[in-house]
Write a structure and sequence with these properties.
By secondary structure, this protein is an alpha/beta fold. Helices cover about 40% and strands about 20% of the residues. It contains 17 helices and 21 strands. The chain has helices at about 1-15, 20-30, 35-40, 65-80, 105-115, 130-140, 175-185, 205-215, 240-250, 280-290, 320-335, 350-355, 370, 400-415, 420-430, 445-460, 525-545, and strands at about 50-55, 90-100, 120-125, 145-150, 160-165, 200, 230, 255, 295-300, 305-310, 315, 340-345, 360-365, 375-380, 385-390, 435-440, 465, 465-475, 490, 495-500, 505-515. The strands form 4 sheets. A 6-stranded mixed β-sheet has the order 1-5-4-2-3-6, with helices on both faces. Helix 4 (about 65-80) packs across helix 7 (about 175-185), helix 11 (about 320-335) runs parallel beside helix 12 and helix 11 (about 320-335) packs across helix 14 (about 400-415). The longest helix has 23 residues, at about 525-545. It is globular, with a radius of gyration of 24 Å.
Length: about 550
């Protein structure tokens, strides 16, 4: 075992094109660090519908240039084998974008070299830009595929590789399995041609086209008065968001200076995710000093949008479900037509809003790879701060255009002497108070997640928080409207619970919702108290049942 492990590590080292990871791996081999080498060579980083995502480092279980070159070569082989999927105008063009994380520019350049060596045309965005710009560029340029090098809001040590096909949507089965099979067929990096040049570096024309497209997000004569504080969370969103806000005529956002510019080390946050505790502290401090109408945050690749409002004496971040409902209600008020869609883990409130407006509504599996494929999509969202408000422009979540739309809504309400919280109260009285929460457990040992799922499958709960479980579904079997996925759904009297492993992080996630009827605004405080008590009790009971 030891000799085989060292032999595999030495074979990888011989092909590694990156001096930094070569040195790292050589140190591990010289030290005879069997534990660490075993972790690096216990398998390969699996390519799936989220593409690749993992910790940077040497070896096939880490993100590095060797892994990326193999992934790019597999994608190139898949594209050449499968012709021109989704009616792309240019069967030979692959567009490549990247964020400002460690190694992102290297991975983008390697991808361009592999595509060029495979006889395809590669076009790389001119600098680190938001993921939505890449998603837009695929459709705008008629490309056959696109790649975004990003780990979104993961920790600084991570990077990732997200693949889109020519419709501008992220890959779904069976394309993921097809690409993975082509990756597995690559025996040696020496078999992958990688010329030193020959690809195109795009200029700002594509970015200008993206910004021009943002005009379609806003109503023509809407007020543009709401004042904002904005944080880019050390990511790539600032310049594009400021340009979009200036183009729209909104007041220039007050920047959280400490987080405004790209920094792959994310020095002011434990996790560069607006949902994580403490991540919004600097933004709230700026808001207390400047008293804006709302606070807006993007995650590092700017495909997500967080919103915070003043609630009583201080600021609080709205849940993704709250923003999702607000944007949906705003679009209904503006007369939007088309299908409203959301993931199954998101609040059912959007469905009630859509049905009352006489609009088609669909639920999908988690992820914009599914939401973006809904026929006739006009608006889609999921609770993890992802909103698609202009599917004809960007068929993915877009934190820039979502920021524009929520600021337009805040401006409309401001002209009426009202706030986003007032509109949330209206929605609660009209449709019932929909309160959501999440039980999320991060693990180091992935077997703990598998064990929890097994326990729940073998002994599903009969009651949670004193409420009878009226239906227990194992989503592994699929449903009439959903393909199979690793998840469990429990329907209770006035509540709903979904349990699933995260697709991008070592987490078990439990999504909770309770619905409390409210007959008048005066009943809202009591309804909120009751909802909070129910959610807390469901979390306690579920944690016990799952053994987490």
């Amino acid at each position: 075992m030891h000799d085989d492990l060292i032999a595999r590590a030495e074979a990888w080292l011989a092909e590694d094109p990156d001096q930094e990871t070569r040195d790292e791996l050589a140190r591990l081999i010289d030290a005879g660090d069997v534990e660490e080498l075993s972790a690096r060579f216990s398998g390969t980083l699996q390519f799936g519908t989220a593409g690749l995502r993992g910790e940077l480092g040497a070896g096939p279980m880490r993100m590095n240039r060797g892994v990326v070159i193999r992934a790019a070569a597999g994608l190139a082989a898949y594209l050449k084998k499968n012709g021109t999927p989704h009616g792309a105008a240019d069967a030979g063009l692959v567009v490549i974008g990247y964020d400002a994380r460690h190694k992102s520019a290297d991975f983008a350049r390697d991808t361009a070299a592999v595509m060029t060596g495979a006889g395809l045309r590669a076009a790389v965005l001119p600098r680190p830009l938001p993921t939505p710009v890449l998603a837009f560029a695929i459709r705008h340029l008629g490309a056959v595929a696109g790649v975004e090098v990003t780990a979104s809001h993961n920790p600084p040590r991570d990077n990732g590789y997200k693949v889109y096909l020519g419709d501008g949507s992220q890959i779904v089965p069976p394309a993921d399995a097809g690409i993975a099979a082509e990756i597995d067929a690559i025996v040696s990096l020496n078999d992958v041609p990688r010329p030193d040049g020959g690809w195109e570096i795009l200029d700002d024309t594509v970015l200008d086209a993206y910004l021009a497209r943002t005009d379609a997000v806003l109503a023509e004569d809407s007020p543009r008065t709401a004042r904002t504080v904005y944080t880019a969370m050390h990511g790539v969103g600032k310049d594009v968001l400021l340009a979009a806000f200036a183009r729209a005529g909104f007041p220039e956002p007050v920047l959280v200076a400490e987080q405004a510019d790209p920094d792959p080390d994310f020095p002011t946050v434990a996790f560069p995710n607006p949902e994580e505790p403490g991540a919004m502290d600097l933004a709230f401090a700026a808001a207390r000093a400047t008293e804006p109408d709302l606070v807006i945050a993007n995650d590092p690749d700017a495909d997500r949008c967080a919103v915070a409002v003043k609630d009583g004496g201080d600021w609080r971040m709205l849940r993704g479900d709250e923003v999702g409902a607000l944007l949906g209600a705003h679009l209904v008020r503006r007369g939007a037509r088309g299908t409203f869609a959301e993931s199954i883990v998101s609040s059912s409130l959007l469905g009630r809003i859509a049905r009352k407006a006489g609009l088609p509504y669909e639920e999908t599996l988690t992820g914009f790879k599914w939401i973006a494929r809904v026929d006739g999509l006009r608006y889609g969202y999921e609770e993890a701060l992802g909103y698609c408000v202009d599917p004809e422009g960007v068929r993915d979540k877009d934190g820039i255009t979502a920021a524009l739309l929520i600021t337009e809504l805040a401006s409309v309400l401001k002209e009426e002497g009202r706030t986003l919280l007032d509109l949330l109260d209206d929605l609660a009285v009209e449709h019932g108070l929909h309160a959501t929460d999440q039980l999320s457990v991060r693990v180091k040992d992935l077997s703990l997640i598998a064990d929890a799922m097994r326990r729940l499958r073998e002994r599903p709960p009969a009651r949670l928080a004193g409420l009878a479980v009226t239906r227990a579904e194992d989503l592994n079997r699929g449903t009439d409207t959903l393909p199979p996925t690793d998840g469990l759904r429990y329907t209770l009297d006035g509540a709903r619970v979904i349990v699933r492993p995260s697709g991008t992080e070592p987490k078990l996630k439990c999504y909770l919702e309770v619905v409390v009827p409210v007959s008048a605004p005066a009943g809202l405080p009591a309804a909120r108290t009751h909802a909070t008590e129910l959610l807390d009790a469901i979390k306690r009971d579920l944690s016990t049942t799952a053994g987490i």
